[in-house]
Amino acid sequence: MAEFGYVLSCEEHSPAELVEQARMAEQAGFSSLWITDHHHPWNDRQGRSPFVWTVIGALSQAVSLPVETAVTCPLVRTRPAVIAQAAATGAALPGGRFRLRVGTGDGLITMMPDAAMVERFRRGGGGTKPVYGGLKVCWGTDRQEAVRTAHRLWANEQLPGELPQILPTPRHFEQASELVTEERVAASVPCGDDPDAHVEAPAAFVDAGFDAVYVNQIGKDQQGFFDFYRTKVMPRLRD
DSSP state, 68? Predict the structure, then answer.
C-alpha cells in the first residue's frame, strides 16, 4: 500500500513554521516528511531558505515521523564530507528515522504520475528500488485566489521540458516564469477545496505504481490545509 507524506518547503517557510507544520502533518495522518534542501529559493517571492540540517535537528525532537531530504546535492552546493557529517548527525538524533536522498542516487523521484516512466525505471535497473512522487496543491475556500497564490509562488514548476535544468540563477527562473499563465497553473495544480480533486491527484501516482506520494501545500494557510486533509482527504486515501 502506498504511503502518503508531507513536503516541508524550505523555500517558503521559516524554521519555526516548518517545525509546526511537521507537528500538524503528524496529527493529520501523514506518515513521513520530505524537507527541501536549497541555498536559495527558486524565486524571491518564495522568500526563504533556512539551513536544512538545523531544521532536521529540531524536527527530530518535535515529531516521531521519518524525515528525509528531497533532495540533497552532495557535490556543487556543499562539500561531500560536510554532507556526510551532517547526515550522520541527522540520522543519530531521531534514532534511525532520517534518510538522506541525493541527486542522481538510489530510487526515482519525480513530480509526474507517469506509469510509463516508472516501468522504464524498473526495467532499466531500478528493480524494486523506491519510486516517490511529489505533488503541490493549494487548498483554499476561494479557488481562484488559490490559483493566484500557486501561480505567484510556484509558476516555475510549470516551465516546460529541460528549461528548469539549464537556468542558472533565481533571476533567470523569474524571467522564464513570466511565460507561465494562471490557466496553466490551474490545469496542473489542485487548487481550491474540492475533496475529489485533492484525492484524485495523489491517487493518480498510486495508480501509476508509485510507492509513496508527498504532498505540499502552497501558501500560508497551513492550518486550514491540514484540517481539510485530516477530515476530508486522508481517510479516503487510506481506504
Answer: E
